[in-house]
Amino acid sequence: MKYxxxxxxxxxxxxxxxAANVIKIGGVVAFPTETVYGLGADVLNEEAVKxxxxxxxxxxxxxxxxxxxxxxxxxKLAKNxxxxxxxxxxxxxxxxxxxxxxxxxxxxxxVTAGLESVAIRMPDNxxxxxxxxxxxxxxxxxxxNKSGRPSPTKxxxxxxxFKDEIDVVLDYDNSAIGLESTVIDxxxxxxxILRPGAVTIEMLIETCGYAESxxxxxxxxxxxxxxxxxxxxxxxxxxxxxVYGETSLMAEKINDLYxxxxxxxxFSSDKLAEKTKVQKVITYQGINEAxxxxxxxLRLFDEQNIEIxxxxxxxxxxxxxxxxxxxxxxxxxxxx
Length: 336
Ligand code: TXA
Ligand code: MG
Fold this sequence. Notes:
This protein is α/β, with parallel strands linked by helices. The chain contains 12 helices and 16 strands. The chain folds into 2 domains: 2-213, DHBP synthase (Alpha-Beta Complex), CATH 3.90.870; 239-331, Threonylcarbamoyl-AMP synthase, C-terminal domain (Rossmann fold, 3-Layer(aba) Sandwich), CATH 3.40.50.11030. Strand 11, helix 8 (201-208) and strand 12 form a beta-alpha-beta unit.
């Protein structure tokens, strides 16, 4: 694996050219995006795409998102695109919104896991867009973590999960948002959210007049669901517990647990952390910082061999909806 630090060395352009060439010749490159780091390969190269699945240990029935650097490329990749989808791409691309559409025939089934649809996204990150442009390829990329591990928001997280199974790591900025993109189904008359993210249902309703969520519903509904959502994601090694309620009552419960087990950690607001005796604490100011720190916190606590990570519940609004979606999976829905 070749590592390039684009922040400090004077090699921004040459590193991107090197990585773009690796993509062109069928290699696998980890790169930053504003949501999480991605692990990319040329969409048209089935062997390269298979390397991503092998490196991650990803189930073959879980399709990859295709990343583009030019909005108009949506027309090359998809067909029968509704007007409201173009309204959304005008407003939110580049940005944390992936749109599932009917695929054009040339897209290999290795990318779409045999589906007739393809998820498309235009990331808002200079390294990601330069890599796509310089490679001259569409880049298929899942998050750059081993399947089941918390998603990577820093190059360091990518390096912790992979060694020589991947060819290049481009280390640039930490992911500004810190949670994966919103995935919507764009094949109907309005957006159906398959995975919540920074583009919220309120934002979709504002632009399109109407939107629905499908990720909380059972798997047997007729509406198409995102295959990835059925797998247990985002799991650290530690047990994760969610705590909610009035601050002093939460603090009481946490302190009771701490009396029995000193090897616990807390991810919470300052207000709650101050009232507890827990020593290993990561706090945030507001919901956006919480989203940004969440996966990093899970990984940091794992490195410290923490047994139980307690996370304070978030309001289900703004990006809180997306954090709670990931948090409930990490916790297996368990509450303190
Ligand atoms: O923010 C993101 O979306 C990041 C960065 C790297 O772009 N990527 C990411 O990829 O999170 P991944 O593979 O970890 O998650 C992609 C999700 C999975 O749940 C997958 O099942 C779903 O998108 N997906 C991909 N193609 C789909 C399709 N054709 N139909 C339905 N769901 C699809
Ligand atoms: Mg992922």
